[in-house]
Description:
Elements: E1 3-10, E2 13-20, H1 23-36, H2 40-43, H3 49-54, H4 58-104, H5 108-116, H6 122-136, H7 146-167, H8 170-202, H9 207-268
Antiparallel strand pairs: 1-2
Amino acid sequence: MLAFNVEITFGGFTVTILTSLLGTKAFSFFIFLWQAAPPADAAADHFSLTQMVKSMGTVAIAVVVILLIMSVYSIAIMVERYLTYSAAKKQSREFAPRVAQALKNDRIEEAINISDKHRKSHLAMVVSSGLQEFRAHGQSSDISGDEIEASKRALQRAIAIKTAEFKRGLSGLATIGSTAPFVGLFGTVFGIINAFRGMKNAETAGIGAVAGGISEALFTTALGLLVAIPAVWLFNYFTGKVDGFVVEMDNSASELVDYFIKNRTRQLKP
């Protein structure tokens, strides 16, 4: 098994990619292709991207179209999720100190109004749901805990709803990241079949007989990886962001429940 390392430096970070070739037979095959290839000037037109696309079969073209659709869809999800998470983070930073000051002064109505003005904030949605439920039981002087439990359930529902909203589209990224290489591999298999079919029809083992099929196979493989790798990276990144948002919402819900308990206790004191 032959292996080599490739180092790529990006943004001050060095990423080491360990690449393994499929044994000495695969390496010998690539050496054969390299030695049998005509001069660069003679093969420039034949191996241009335009000529390669024109020489593709129906299956390869269908694979390329599918991969391009998957790529456009994944890019749309990436942009939309990034804007959603950025807006949630920005509004939450503005919302937290304002609502904390309102609750410190026991101004529940003001806190609810502040929450309504930050609709993109995940913290605002959670706090608003709990405050509205608590306000609905505000006239009760019973300390049985019914209003506290109702507020807890409202907070849990709000967290579940917001978490589902944050995760919307991420399953699509995961699906694209896991299936795009196999879609490209599907095109690769047909490219190899076409390469051997061309070799048989030409009754020769020269590079000209297999060049079209090999280029078709490698192109679909490369395109599949190009679609899958960003999708996997961004899926992991966005999943981490959602986990962070869930922790923030849980902490806010816990602090709000503590505020409810202290507030009701003060009201019942003689």
